[in-house]
Amino acid sequence: MKKDRLIKKFDKQAKMYENNQHHHRIAGWRKDLIKNAYGKVLEVGVGAGANFPYYNRANVEITGVDFSSEMIKSAKRAADRFQVKAEFMTKDLEELSFADNSFDCIVSTLSLCTYTDPIAVLRKFNRWCREGGRVLLMEHGLSSNPLLSLAQKIIDPVYKQISGCHCNRNFPELMKKSHLQVEHMERYWSDIFVLIQAKPLKEQIN
Ligand SMILES: C[S@@+](CC[C@H](N)C(=O)[O-])C[C@H]1O[C@@H](n2cnc3c(N)ncnc32)[C@H](O)[C@@H]1O
């Protein structure tokens, strides 16, 4: 799908993301993950700011990136509501660059399913996150259940057309290729949902 169509698709979904942030289990995972964020935080695919209630607002300065201007409008409202210090960039993350070691922490929740090249994006995280910093991920991908994963692989093209994201990303495999070092990984719902805390490995060639 062309990028401009994808952006329009997410523009249309912004209100839905703004209004549907109350799934108990997912909200709990966001809370567990986001409490580990600190300092200069880059949140990619920030969407409607669903993580903003969970940041320690005394301790973070967020740069939120999203290519959907409607999502950014919703995220700005969330930042005001939860009084988190945040600036926003309406940009395609895959085209964006920051200086190496720009951030203490990089957060992605439910965004790595959308990028054309998730390994390239994870390698950017490795460069942009300073040594000793944290990369915090909450993503959905391929189940470890053979029947479910087969179904996910079959429906992926249709799923992508409808939702704008892939349902067949293999996170354990992606992390091996990412240059990041996984410190902690938890998986839920037949391993479809994954929470990852990782750190950059600076000796890797990016
Ligand atoms: C499934 S939503 C998740 C939103 C939010 N992170 C959350 O947890 O609810 C994916 C978000 O990533 C954004 N996105 C997808 N591809 C992008 C890209 N290449 N550059 C910037 N933002 C992107 C979409 O506009 C959308 O807001």
TrEMBL record:
<dbReference type="InterPro" id="IPR013216">
    <property type="entry name" value="Methyltransf_11"/>
</dbReference>
<dbReference type="InterPro" id="IPR052356">
    <property type="entry name" value="Thiol_S-MT"/>
</dbReference>
<dbReference type="InterPro" id="IPR029063">
    <property type="entry name" value="SAM-dependent_MTases_sf"/>
</dbReference>
<dbReference type="GO" id="GO:0032259">
    <property type="term" value="P:methylation"/>
</dbReference>
<dbReference type="GO" id="GO:0008757">
    <property type="term" value="F:S-adenosylmethionine-dependent methyltransferase activity"/>
</dbReference>
<protein>
    <submittedName>
        <fullName>SAM-dependent methyltransferase</fullName>
    </submittedName>
</protein>
<feature type="domain" description="Methyltransferase type 11">
    <location>
        <begin position="42"/>
        <end position="136"/>
    </location>
</feature>
<keyword id="KW-0808">Transferase</keyword>
<keyword id="KW-0489">Methyltransferase</keyword>
<dbReference type="Pfam" id="PF08241">
    <property type="entry name" value="Methyltransf_11"/>
</dbReference>
